[in-house]
Amino acid sequence: MKRITGMLVCLLLFGFTAIFAQDIQIRGTVTASEDGSALPGVYVKIKGTNAGTATDFEGKFQLTVASNATLVFSSIGYKDQEVALAGQSVLDVVLEQDVTQVDEVVVTALGITREKKSLGYATQEVTGDEISTVKSSNFINSLSGKVAGVNVKANGNMGGSTNIIIRGSKSLTGNNQALFVIDGVPVDNSNTNNAGQRTGRSGYDYGNAAADINPNDIESINILKGAAASALYGARAANGVVIITTKKGAAKQNKALGVSINSNVTWSKIDKSTFPEYQDQFGGGYGPFYSGGAHPGLEEFDLDGDGTDDLVVPFYEDASYGEKFDPSLMVYQWDAMVPESPNYGKKTPWVASKNGPDKFFETGVTLTNGIDINGGSDKSSFRLAYTNFDQKGIMPNSKLIKNNITFNGSYNVMPNLKISASANYVNTKGKGRNSTGYSDNIMTSFRQWYQVNVDMDMLEELYAKTGRNVTWNPTYYDDPVPLYWDSPYWVRFKNYQTDERNRLIGYVQADWKATDWLSFMGRVAVDTYSELQEERKAVGSVAGELGVDRPDVTSGYSRYDRTYLETNMDLMANFRKDLTDKININGLLGVNIRNQKVDRVFASTNGGLSVPDVYALSNSIDPMLPPDELNSTVAMNGYFGSLSLGYNNMLFLDGTYRIDQSSTLPSGNWTYGYPSVSGSFLFSELVDANWLQLGKLRLNYAEVGNDAPWASTSDVYDPVAPFAGNPMVSVPITKNNADLKPERTKSIEAGLELSFLQGRAGIDLALYKQNTINQILPVTISLATGYSSKYINAGEIENKGVELQLTGTPVKLNEFAWDITVNWAKNVNKVVELKEGITNLQLGSLQGGITINARVGEPYGTIQGTDFQYVNGQRLVRANGYYRRSTTSDKVIGNINPDWTGGVLNAFTYKNLRFSFLIDIQHGGDLFSLDQWYGQATGLYKESVANNDLGNPVRNQVYTDYGDATTPMLDNPGGIINEGVYADGTTNTLRVEGGDYRFKGYVYWPNSVYIYDASYVKLREVVLTYNLPSQLMAKTFMSAASVSFVGSNLWIMSKNLPYADPEASQSSGNIQGWQGGTLPATRNFGISLNVQF
Amino acid sequence: MKKKYLILLVLAAFFAACTDNFEDYNTDKKNPAIVAGESLFSNAEKSLSDHMSSSNVNVNVLKLFAQYWTETTYTDEANYDLINRGIPQQVFRDFYRGLLRDFQEATKIITETPATSAIGETEKQNKLAIIDLLVCYSYQQLVDIFGNVPYTEAMDVENVAPAYDDAATIYADLIDRVNAALTQLDDAQGSFGTADLIYSGDVAAWKKFGNSLKIKLGIGLADYDGGTLAKATVESAVAGAFGGIGDGAFFPYQTSSPNYNPLYDDLVTSGRNDFVAANTIVDIMNALQDPRRWAYFEEMAEGGFIGGVYGSTSPYALYSHLSDALHQPTLLGLFITYDQVLFYLAEGAARGYSVGGTEEELYNAAITASFELWGVPADSITSYLANPDVAWATAPGTWQEKIGTQAWLAFYARGLEGYTSWRRLDFPILNMPESITEYNEIPKRYTYPVNEQTLNKESWQAASDAIGGDEMVTPLFWDTAQPVPTK
Question: The sheet that has A891-895: what strands, in order across it?
Fold first, then answer.
């Protein structure tokens, strides 16, 4: 590490030295040949260097260069033009349109730049602006809807993890997330959320590690979707690669430093369409069960001792199927039991609360401020940038702060030897992240278990006054201890978590151009971070899961320390040679040595905290449980080569081969190789049609291997806490396997690219099929074997799909342009085989009796649970009028995969104004709503007071003796007749009561009823940018400035899931399709200022 | 030339950096690869006790099924709902994957570890016999919960589709194994020492346990196949079985987590109020003026004991809570107790077995031992036994009703034993819960784990057919008596 730091210091010094070299200043204007209009954004580069500038909105540029330099002008859609200065100081350049547009250069695997036309596989580019304009705590969110075939799912948690799947899930139980590579360096994207968090039990979403990447540093992103594109990366790239190229320094006019400042403020408000709409007619309780009098939904006893019975709310219940509100009824509510309450000892009117849970949320505010300093000379360049991201979430006492410093620089030590280095330090601090999942989550209460008579303001007031856990849900009128739910304010201000991650990503690289056809690259890269996650539960809380083995405790503290280190050493030789006029070859040979080390300890107090408010392991009441320790080391040696052959700029053929040696496989099997071959054919070269500028066919075949999870080839024992001095151990639940073989993905892909109407319209179509076979998986086996699972090589998943990108410029006038981009993708996923005799692999088991599975013949991610029982296609009803549900929970009731996803981006440019909006669409895919499963049984939602088939309020009592169908029916009965038949086939005619917890939801209804279509259409982003005119700028010290009004997630235009965002989930990972206790989505409005000096 | 050397040097450095001690990289250094069999045995003993003691609704709901307790607000399990929480799967997990796996591994390691002396060899044989006794004890529970279960083909990771064995055959084999273990036990030497958390390695105590287990197994077969094997088994074990309350097998829970009684988690640290006394037991005890009520439950503030209507919503404040004794972290885990053995012997006597006493003597002794176990003052025993509804001569009904009622009362808080006693003797009369969702009679067994249907389908199908359908109302092979009348 010391060496890298030293190198950085040198580069920094060299960089500044270079800037103060003496040169001449030139300026000029660039115009377009077709109409003479000024061309903004033309890249002006000093030939032989990376230094340069770009034209402003009037096509003007200024640059300081050596007087004998040659300038290269380039702009997409135009042919490059070189101009030798020869002493000129004013240059007016006219660029000719390049109607073929085939010279686009993209960054491919291992950082190799290639002409896009020569590629035989699909890639798609996104510019830095497209993902940095709208600020988000996780830049991956900004990819949603912008790339065909990339499925991005932001789950809505503050600083939460984002799921990114390219072309469908390929691994049954392994990682399916895309690989992130910055400037050739793989960047860790671990999700450290524990298993309980990912399966919706409890815990916090600590995000995925790729969220550390600062969008302000991104120049462009190129997405390698298929195996052929990523084969050179080896195993870990089987899921596709997101290649990020960061901004670099460039020479500026007047020898000055290029300085730009970016400032953004965003306000977030909850989207009411993703929050419950509560009923306001009935208060706390589960039904009319609490007393026998006129008000059976309330308890009746003499509480104040005046000799007459009082009405008391059953506030120990967390539901709203209680007594009908009536302002003339005076009742003792929870706040009458609290001495500090203004209502202490008082009866208050029985009415719905005016201050419901929506009052709990605050306006989120996110400030993002960045400064970017860069500069360079013909020999060197550097960029230094700092960004501060400061987010206050919508829940009280929440905060997420990121500080990101990045430096990169390059220096040409000799004309043919360049040394470059980069360092990116990221510090992330979180406080008060929202709880996720079923247990111990305020949102679970708001969405599932609540009394609509509870006043949020009173809860806030009483917490502020007392500092105690004053809850609406005490155990009983004489026992203030919270029963199921703490005061939400207590939870936010006492039981908050904190976390911090310090990370350094950097590399040192040398590029040596040995001859004009042969070059070498050597690079040493490191990605390392340490993180600490601390969770707290204050003395006096409701028991909740915390710490090692996650027992329920009423107080406690846990800390999770994890350090990660990955080093990559790469050595590559590149060659490029024209064999004849028409035939050229290029290729590479390389070695990659990767080492990965994870060291983690998870420890917690046991049995509670001795001294309140001291959050330390030493403050444990009982001796600590054995900490969960892991120290994993993985090494991988990769040897690879590629050869590309081009013929006459028309036919290109690529072949790659990589051999990996992986430490996670058994010795006989740890070396494995895999090939790829791809070709492209530019048939437009043969067609002389005016309207067709580019026509290209692509075809490729690739295989990629993958190794095993660490330490899955030999068995160890699980330590258990000792008992009275006796050591105890247990046999682990998974049997490891000393004979594992590498798994393999085989893929075939074809594509068509067309560009026509002088580049005004373009099509990129890709078809692919990928099969992952011999998967290494801990297959679930009968528990009667003594194990839950054993590692085997088995299973096959197939992904087939279509991706389509359409680009067009429907209108292009002198000062106005309308651009439209459409992305559309459909992936069909199928579990082909698991293992002989096994037809189902359970990926996760979640609250509500739901499992997420890989089932043979079905798409990956079937949602399984209970369904109705059927008689001749009709639902079976029991004699008591309620449904009979299936006796097993293995019915396939949904699947998590969308039918298709898409995005439509429209951009309008008029003079200095640019307006764009992105519509993001997911069609199909299912999810199970735990919120509705429970919430419909607790009577929170407004449907629970709707009118029934007879037009009567559904909660009207049906029978004289409540619920007893043998007693006479009352006038205007509520309730419903469940549609279906009895076992003998006759139709059910029995009306059941609608006034208690059995009416809907989990008690009598099957899971299948609470499966929802996860489709959505969202107005994802709206951006209005005004670039201040350069005439104006000329009079200031600024060289360019713009102001943007940005909005994100402004409007969910269409969805089928009530009261929640269908994208919301507990975590990224393979377990999706289940939702419970999620935060409401936010609408975000912001203003951005960009100033360049 | 210099350049070439430089290149060679760089290349050499690179290949030197290539790693080849891959096996070391792939070794888990934080967890042991070699352990003592004793540490697996200790853990398995605790796992077994934990499972039986727990009332966690995801783990063990038999205290509800036996209708000792009912649930306050969330009444699914009291209504015999096993599906919602996948409880049968948890039973397989706790037994096969948990304690049986650890017992098996302990057996393997102890067998493979050579003894260094003759005494050591005897101790080793004692250890193996003790493990086998507990394995037999565990398998009887599995059979009593499900009926046919995987047995001869179970516990083999190479056979992922183990067949289910006939329950009666398993019983017979368990009796053989207990006999073999008893022969193998040599109380001239010790065994596990302190690693045995139940008897501290006392082989004589384990011999009594083995004989008591034989009685438990034998009596289980009383209504099956003419009861021949039952009679022989019980009679051969009487002499060697428990002779006093102190002989019972108890698990000594500690004061602190995670070594306290799991019930402490369910009732105290969870902070929840999920359980109250069920009216089924409270009504019977009230009628009998049973002095054990204060040991089992907490008296209402206004005096007396009220049980929640079994299976119906029962607000916590309105019904009798569980006793203070059950809220203690060190509450003993109960394996087999003396009163339990005496009830079996009383039943044996009633069936005409030669068990060293009359049914009345043994019945009175069993009730007395139960009072002792729960620490009920001795003076109250005499008056209780004199109660005409308790006294052998005058208590109503058949011997099944007399013993059935009293055994069920004595087995309080031991869910499986209470539920089994009721299933075998059909007394007392339990309540049909109002909200039971799937059946029209009180269930008599657990359905098999759903996992077995997907992972071991053919074996599951064969077992389902063999027992008469994988339904909760299918009676087990030993449950041959008339259908149970319900209130």
Answer: A840-846, A850-855, A862-865, A891-895
Query: Nearest Cβ partner of B28 from A625, A716, A731?
Result: A716
CB contact under 8 A, B437 and A878: yes
**pLDDT tens-digit profile of A876-896?**
998 889 998 887 788 999 999
Cβ distance of A552 and B265 shorter than 8 Å: yes
Interface of B with A in 386-415 (CB under 8 A): none
Q: Min CA distance, B433 vs chain A (Å)?
A: 13
Mutate: best of A511, A729, A792, partner B, most B CBs <10 A: A729
Report pLDDT digits (tens) over B13-26: 666 666 668 889 99
Of B39, B60, B81, the C-alpha closest to B141 is B60
To the nearest whole angstrom, how far is the Cα of A302 from the nearest Cα of chain B?
14
Q: Which two tokens stand for residue B84?
A: 């919602």
CA distance A764 to chain B (A): 41
pLDDT per residue as tens digits for the range A631-650:
999 999 999 999 999 998 89
A&B contacts, CB < 8 Å: 255
Ordered mean pLDDT values, 10 residues apiece, chain A (1093 residues): 40 38 73 75 74 76 77 78 78 74 72 83 87 84 89 89 90 88 90 89 92 91 88 82 89 73 95 96 93 90 92 95 96 96 96 96 96 88 95 96 96 92 96 94 97 97 97 93 95 97 96 92 95 97 91 93 96 91 91 95 95 97 91 94 92 94 92 93 86 91 91 94 94 95 92 90 95 89 94 92 95 91 95 83 88 92 94 92 86 95 95 94 96 96 95 96 91 96 94 94 93 97 91 79 94 96 91 94 95 86
What does the alpha-carbon distance between residue B420 and residue A1066 come to, in Å, rounded to a whole number? 42
User: Mean per-residue pLDDT for B342-347?
Assistant: 98
Predicted complex ipTM exceeds 0.90: yes
Secondary structure of B177-208 in HEC code, one letter for each residue: HHHHHHHHCCCCCCCCHHHCCCCCCCHHHHHH
How far, CA to CA in Å, does A523 sit from each of A293, A383, A418, A516, A648?
82, 19, 12, 21, 33
Which chain A residues touch B43 with a CB distance below 8 Å?
720, 723, 728-730
| A1072, containing H or E segment | none
Q: Furthest-apart CA pair in chain B: how many Å? A: 114
Q: Is residue B104 within 8 Å of A786, Cβ to Cβ?
A: yes
Q: Report the pLDDT value the prediction gives residue A19, as an integer from 0 to 100.
A: 38
**Residue B109 sits at the chain A interface (C-beta within 8 Å):** no
HSE (side-chain half, CA atoms, 13 Å) at A1051 = 7
B377 touches A at CB < 8 Å = no
DSSP string, A656-722: EEEEEEETTS-GGGSEEEEEEEEEEE-GGGT---TTEEEEEEEEEEEEEEE-PPTT-SS---EEEEE
Beta-carbon separation of A483 and B437 below 8 A: no
Q: Give SS3 for A638.
A: strand
Task: Please report where in the chains the tokens 């290639």 appear, as a residue.
Answer: A114
Asked if A631 is an interface residue toward chain B (Cβ–Cβ < 8 A), one would say: yes
Q: Cα–Cα distances in Å, from A1025 out to A59, A215, A1084?
A: 18, 18, 16
Are A785 and B83 a contacting pair at CB < 8 A? no
Most A CBs within 10 A among B11, B25, B85, hence the mutation to make, goes to: B25
CB contact under 8 A, B35 and A730: no
Tokens of A359: 């009052």
Residue of A nearest to B79 (CA): A1003
Tens-digit pLDDT profile for residues B129-166: 999 999 999 999 999 999 999 999 999 999 999 999 99
Separation between Cα atoms, residue A95 and residue A33, nearest integer Å: 6
